[in-house]
Amino acid sequence: MPDNVSLAPPSLKLWKKFESEGTNAFRICTLSGAWIERLGADLLLSYQAESLLPELLAWCATLPALTGFVPERVFGRHLPVRNQERVSPVLLEGDAELPLFTTVTEAGVRFGLDFSAGYSAGLFLDQRHNRSWVRQNARGRFLNTFSYTCSFSVCAALAGAETLSIDLSRKSLSRGEANFVLNGLSPEKHRFFAADVRESFPRLARKGERFDTIILDPPTFSTSHTRGRFRVEDDMGELVQAALEVTAPRGRLLISTNCTRLGVRDLERICRMALKLRRLSGTFSPTLPPEDFPRGEGASCVWLQLSA
Ligand SMILES: C[S@@+](CC[C@H](N)C(=O)[O-])C[C@H]1O[C@@H](n2cnc3c(N)ncnc32)[C@H](O)[C@@H]1O
Questions:
Q1: How much is the mean pLDDT over the chain?
Q2: Can you identify the CATH homologous superfamily of domain 9-114?
Q3: Which of the two residues, 287 and 245, has the higher pLDDT score?
Q4: Cβ neighbours of residue 41 under 8 Å, at least 6 residues apart?
Q5: Cα–Cα dist 147/195, whole Å
Q6: d(Cα 198, Cα 213) in Å, to the nearest integer?
Q7: Which residue among 174, 222, 253 has the greatest number of ligand 1 atoms within 8 angstroms of its CB, and so is best to mutate?
Q8: Which atom of ligand 1 is nearest to the CA of 230?
């Protein structure tokens, strides 16, 4: 094993805990400028510099003896400084003939991954606790904005909620529908809108639609043909205000971001201002940090529950 890393006993304990609860997608270790994730039968190595690769591969070679897990394939992904330079993972080890589409499980829930779909294969591991909360608590009407491959919607639908997923990308929504099917759910009984969330909120409000739970997890930056640029630091406040217009009394919102310049306190401040402008009140609950992510890594999130 390389000198500067070790699969310390707590990590091994965590590995076993994940496996026992039916989870095979998790971060295995985080090094300086790199990390390793297990994604079902495969491993994904993410690194800021190619020079870290030999060390990461050496680390992977120790896994079978430590955990009994023999990866089918090892993929590598360069972490560029600029988002525009992001590319799909490349196959480093394993059979190139195997399909790039695969499935993983999280607490028994199945999600499709596609290693050829771009930088992200289809599931954000740092949202595991929030998906678990949704899986256990979502009831009534559930709105998943910036839904990507609809992992939150699948969990809500499994809990019995009626879901609406909104994303700019029709392709991501189709993958979301496939995730419903993977879990024995009928996509026909749920709604999927390919639209800009900023346009959808006022439309839903005009129609009188109200939701018991809303997920608001926008990207740090995006652009759309109809509404132009979205920058989370500038636009989160307006987004929260628009979401509050369609939140049912005592409804809950998850506000989340991967923007490193916005922490939990910033999100709470943005929400307080939005509540004030909408003459509403609510309480915040912290979210548990993911057990497999070092402190400070992963999304910053808060749950806001509206008062009656
Ligand atoms: C960070 S991902 C969301 C991850 C998702 N919450 C999850 O946990 O799987 C961002 C998503 O927002 C979508 N998106 C970006 N700008 C958008 C917009 N203005 N309206 C709707 N969707 C948008 C992208 O297509 C992408 O799927």
A1: 94
A2: RNA methyltransferase domain (HRMD) like (3.30.750.80)
A3: 245
A4: 24, 71, 72, 73, 102
A5: 11
A6: 18
A7: 222
A8: 19
CATH code linked to domain 125-306 = 3.40.50.150
Ligand 1 midpoint to CA 149 (Å) = 9
The closest residue, in CA terms, to atom 16 on ligand 1 is: 222
Please give the pLDDT value at position 308: 77
- Is any ligand 1 atom within 6 A of the Cβ of residue 241? no
Binned at pLDDT 50, 70 and 90, residue 38 comes out as very high
The residue whose C-alpha atom lies closest to atom 18 belonging to ligand 1 is: 196
Domain boundaries, the chain: 9-114, 125-306
pLDDT of residue 9: 52
169 C-beta closer than 6 A to ligand 1 = yes
**H-helix or E-strand spanning residue 19:** helix 9-20
Mean pLDDT of 28-36: 91
Residue 140 main-chain phi, psi, to 5 deg: 70, -130
1: pLDDT strictly greater than 80: no
Which residue has a Cα nearest atom 4 of ligand 1?
148
Spatial CA neighbour of 78 closest among 123, 113, 33: 33
Evaluate: CB of 106 within 6 angstroms of ligand 1: no
User: Is pLDDT of 31 > 60?
Assistant: yes
Q: Tell me the per-residue pLDDT of 182-206, one tens digit each, with 9 for 90 and over.
A: 999 999 999 999 999 999 999 999 9
Rounded to the nearest angstrom, the distance between the alpha carbon of 96 and the centre of ligand 1 is 30
Which tokens belong to 146?
């910036």
Provide CB contacts within 8 A for 68, sequence distance 6+.
Answer: none
